[in-house]
Design a protein that fits this description.
two-stranded parallel ribbon; Cytidylyl_trans; alpha/beta; 4-stranded mixed sheet; globular; Nucleotide-diphossugar_trans
Length: 196
Amino acid sequence: MIVWTIEQVLAAPGLTPYVSTEDAEIAAVARAAGAEIIERPDDLAEDTTATEPVVEHAVEVITERSQRPEAVMLLQATSPIRLPGTLSRAVAEFSSSAVDSMVGVVPEPIFLWQRSPEVRALYPFENRPRRQDVTPEQERFRETGSLYLTRTEIYERQHNRLGGRIGLFVMDPAESLDIDTLEDFERAEQWVAGNH
């Protein structure tokens, strides 16, 4: 999955893949695939470590090596499916907008419910719209976990991948797979085998 993501970055002009890891085997695989390695300190490699401190550490290392990046594209290897051109399209949308951070999303049906603390619809079920009549105000999107693009100062000031003026980067529904189970991994493997 790491190699697949590195290859996607290398295919997008102007992007450099960095992999932060404390694991020698992952570092070797990533380096062989063309990524630059950031040696992650043990205190940032705990099971409970959040992503943001890891990104902030990576920014510090990159700044020491060359220059401070203007923005960071965070690509999680556990959400590996990105269509050709997606990363370049994200950079173009980010550059042409006035957003400070951008989150990859996919369209979701508006007909959502919550169970707790009480059962209730998250749409006006009393006046159920037809799918084709859903207005832009009624549209809903689900975060993919696949792609975040954030100005470096947002990490520095807010210690979060999202902050300031947030934009939505609408991705193809095929790009929404997040690997949490063996079945998810098998689905991703099938997709990659058929599209690589």
